[in-house]
Design goal:
This protein is of the alpha/beta class and 613 residues long. It is built from 20 helices and 23 strands.
Length: 613
């Protein structure tokens, strides 16, 4: 045992020994009869009480608890320890002296509990509130240790807010003075909860902030709808610079709200869209105990697919990627989890047909999630051959390997840019969709594509760029004031992919109901605000639309989507007719075409499509 722990244990035993001795001798001198027999009885009883108190305290772990976190649970433990000690002492009294001095033992029991519990709770209060003199120096009172701490207001007085308040009071790591709660439940108004007043509702947030000089707000509403959270965040950010929140309820284990869960408000909180909920049972029945292969497993989407999949207990999860560093990173992350899944790393390029066939033959996966792709629009516009090789031929290699070796399910991660594409990246993703749709006509493998919009936080999204520009002092560069995009979070995108795999029948294109599109300039303004700056401090510059970019994105073309959802917030597209021969001709002859001719032939192939009515 470390020296510091030995010292602490010795101090606890000494304090408890003094309290136990005082309790029994107080009852002896003031409540018990005088006489030699009684004196002998109390001497024996005090020794028994001391020994049994320390014995039961040790057995029940009372000496392993920190006093500064003394709670009702510890009080119950103290009552149990003291009661067992008194019962043991009573038994010894009866055996040794054939008599029991009940009144003295009852008073000893009460004093014992009062003093043992009182010392611990007094210490807890002292560690939260330091004793100091008032400005006139006339009398002492308890005040918060750090008068210069942030004046903190908690929005939400429910269970999460209450637990958070208690932990913030007890934590040395939190430099905050809690001024109270605000909550829209009017039945809580003017009440005191967790030792703090409920000061009103969100409607009078500004008045509360001004009156109490609040400079820090924590939103403790993990189960609130996204649209409501967006309203509260925007309202709070307009008044207070420092706004934080707890994770959504799905990320909090029941009753496990902690100070460490507090995070800064993120751009995802302002999307105002409810997250996709999974059909856990159907996915688990598909994935549990199976071998699953993820290509592009080191990328933003691929790695998140792996994080989501591993929750469903696959027998093997194969991480396939071209970049060794990214594969190493996700592999090390997954290895830290308490799981039975065998995680296998495979370095391979999807353009290497022989290697891909070798991997699929070796592991015989039940599912392939194909996330490997080139996605950067301007770069692919300048390098159409590389876009074609990776997005089209790479998909063809993995898909045909799945067909050859009888993989039951294949899910292609596609893009909204595949709809009426105006750029090479989107066009090659549409050709990739055609490749798996063509295969699905003759294969036993169920081939499906999942099409979604821009992903917040991915390596190719605008958010990392905007953050870097803000860190450098600005300005943020936006292509056009009217540029709009659909956005989703990385976990949402990954859940959609997994759910689509469970819904697959073969040949479908699934798409998420992503709500309303967001203007990029509004996204930039929100990010500036979340970073604690004003728009004039950072600035926004319009750089002009880049080659291949569209002003507005679409998730499915006109008349291309069935009106009925196949799953909450998930739609299915209608199959388009396309020219099989033209597609095959393009793939076989691409190597003989110049970059410009290849670009033209890709778009010609797409224009031959006819929408299935």
């Amino acid at each position: 045992m470390p020296a510091a722990l030995k010292k602490r244990l010795a101090l606890l035993i000494l304090i408890d020994s003094i309290i136990v001795s005082f309790s029994i001798f107080f009852s002896h001198f003031f409540l018990g009869p005088s006489g030699t027999v009684f004196d002998q009885m109390m001497l024996v009883s005090s020794l028994v009480l001391l020994i049994t108190h320390h014995l039961f305290s040790s057995l029940l772990g009372m000496y392993r608890k920190k006093w500064r976190y003394a709670s009702m649970e510890e009080l119950i433990g103290i009552i149990v320890v003291v009661s067992l000690s008194i019962i043991s002492t009573t038994f010894v009294q009866f055996l040794a002296f054939a008599d029991i001095y009940t009144r003295a033992l009852i008073i000893t029991w009460m004093l014992h509990i009062l003093l043992i519990g009182g010392v611990r709770f007094a210490w807890r209060y002292y560690k939260t509130y330091g004793l100091t003199l008032n400005p006139k120096g006339k009398k002492a009172k308890f005040i918060k240790n750090n008068p210069n701490a942030k004046q903190t207001l908690i929005i939400g007085a429910g269970s999460a807010g209450q637990m958070l308040a208690r932990q913030m009071k007890n934590s040395n790591e939190v430099n905050s003075n809690l001024v109270g709660f605000i909550d829209d439940d009017f039945t809580m108004h003017h009440l005191t909860i967790a030792g703090l007043p409920v000061l009103g509702s969100t409607k009078n947030l500004e008045d509360v902030v001004i009156k109490h000089r609040v400079n820090h707000v924590v939103i403790a509403m993990p189960s609130a709808e996204k649209s409501r959270m967006k309203e509260i965040i925007q309202s709070a950010k307009g008044i207070v610079k420092n706004v934080q929140t707890l994770p959504m309820i799905e990320d909090i284990a029941l009753g496990n709200v902690s100070v460490s869960s507090i995070r800064d408000v993120s751009i995802e909180d302002l999307l105002g869209r409810e997250p996709v909920e999974l059909d856990i049972q159907s996915i688990s029945s598909e994935i549990n105990g199976q071998t699953v292969l993820v290509t592009g497993a080191g990328g933003s989407i691929g790695s998140e697919i792996c994080r989501q999949l591993i929750k469903f207990g696959p027998k093997q999860l194969i991480l396939l990627g071209h970049g060794e560093n990214s594969i190493y990173t996700i592999h090390m992350e997954l290895k830290q989890l308490d799981i039975q899944t065998e995680v296998i790393t495979t370095i391979a390029d999807v353009q290497d047909r022989d290697r891909i066939f070798e991997v699929v033959q070796k592991y015989q996966p039940s599912y392939i999630y194909h996330a490997a792709a080139h996605k950067h629009v301007p770069l692919m516009e300048a390098n159409p051959r590389e876009a074609f090789k990776n997005n089209v031929l790479g998909t063809k290699n993995v898909a045909e390997a799945a067909d050859t070796y009888g993989v039951p399910n294949f899910v292609l991660i596609s893009s909204d840019k595949a709809v009426n594409p105006t750029n090479v990246m989107g066009a090659t993703k549409r050709i990739a969709e055609m490749v798996i749709q063509l295969l699905s006509k003759t294969s036993n493998t169920k081939f499906v594509a999942v099409r979604f919009g821009n992903v917040l936080g991915s390596r190719g999204s605008v958010i990392p760029l905007f953050k870097k520009q803000i860190a450098n002092g600005g300005p943020i560069t936006v292509t056009h004031p009217d540029m709009t995009r659909y956005f989703m979070t990385i976990p949402e995108a990954s859940r959609l992919v997994i759910q689509a795999g469970a819904l697959a029948r073969g040949g479908e294109i699934f798409v998420l109901d992503m709500g309303e599109p967001v203007k990029i300039v509004d996204l930039a303004k929100n990010l500036i605000s979340l970073s604690g700056f004003r728009e004039e401090d950072v600035g926004i510059q319009f750089s002009g639309i880049r080659p291949g970019e569209k002003m507005y994105e679409e998730l499915l073309g006109k008349d291309e989507v069935h009106s009925k959802q196949v799953f909450p917030k998930i739609y299915i597209g209608k199959n388009n007719y396309f020219n099989d021969n033209k597609l095959t001709e393009l793939i076989l002859g691409y190597n003989h075409l110049s970059d410009e001719t290849l670009r033209e032939e890709v778009f010609k192939t797409i224009k031959l499509e006819k929408v299935h009515q």
